[in-house]
Amino acid sequence: MADEERDLIEILEENNPIDINKYISYVRSPKCGAIATFAGTTRDTFEGKEVLELQYEAYVPMAIRCLKSLCSSARSSWDIHLIAVAHCLGTVPVGETSVFVAISSVHRADGLDACKFLIDELKASVPIWKKEVYTNGEVWKENKEFIERMPYLVMASHDQGGACSGKKKVEAHERKSCCGTKVKVNVNDESADSCSLIILSILESSTKDPFPILITQYECQTAE
């Protein structure tokens, strides 16, 4: 069986909660001595504001292609056996799981490192967007991993022709930055050979005064 055929990748429509046991059972194998997992859940506060829920949207065809590419990158870097990745769309209430990663490996170090890589890269480059809903308002939020990656996405679109390859994992894990606010996303025809996103983000300073709008374009090449 080809590696990509062993990767279970699911983007779940609204009102389809993540079944954690399903994905753990999928990756379980008598060949492996470790299963590394990550579950991302909605917390009840952010910077002193009460969070009611998170709402997720995605460009699903591109998200699946990018996740497949990230799984391939993880396999090329670590000795892992089976991978399962699931992400919810729609509303995710406080305490519920929005994203789950499970990886089986012979030894725990490979599974743990690959699991961290996958969730970090998912947050940085996969076209899934999050709105935080508070008691006193709501806002689209960029993950900090994406903000950290933005300058490199510009270079990647020219030098490498893709933002989903997961080639910047070491640098990305070392950089620190803040979150911004997502304004708009436009995508081209999903049937094209490559897909692109135009992402407009307003980066906010600590005083809440916005920096000028930064426009970033990047491409994710599809596999033949």
TrEMBL record:
Catalytic activity: 2 [molybdopterin-synthase sulfur-carrier protein]-C-terminal-Gly-aminoethanethioate + cyclic pyranopterin phosphate + H2O = molybdopterin + 2 [molybdopterin-synthase sulfur-carrier protein]-C-terminal Gly-Gly + 2 H(+)
SUPFAM superfamilies xref list: Molybdopterin synthase subunit MoaE
Swiss-Prot/TrEMBL GO biological process terms: Mo-molybdopterin cofactor biosynthetic process
Enzyme class: transferase
Highest taxon in the source lineage: Eukaryota
Record localization: Cytoplasm
Alphabetic keyword roster: Cytoplasm, Molybdenum cofactor biosynthesis, Transferase
Residues holding substrate: H107, R108, K123, K130, K131, E132
Iron in keyword set: no
GO molecular function, one term: molybdopterin synthase activity
Any single Gene Ontology cellular-component annotation: molybdopterin synthase complex
Subunit-structure text: Heterotetramer; composed of 2 small (MOCS2A) and 2 large (MOCS2B) subunits.
HAMAP family given in the database record: MOC2B (MF_03052)
PANTHER family, per the entry: MOLYBDOPTERIN SYNTHASE RELATED
Described function: Catalytic subunit of the molybdopterin synthase complex, a complex that catalyzes the conversion of precursor Z into molybdopterin. Acts by mediating the incorporation of 2 sulfur atoms from thiocarboxylated MOCS2A into precursor Z to generate a dithiolene group.
Protein name: Molybdopterin synthase catalytic subunit
Biological source species: Anisodus tanguticus
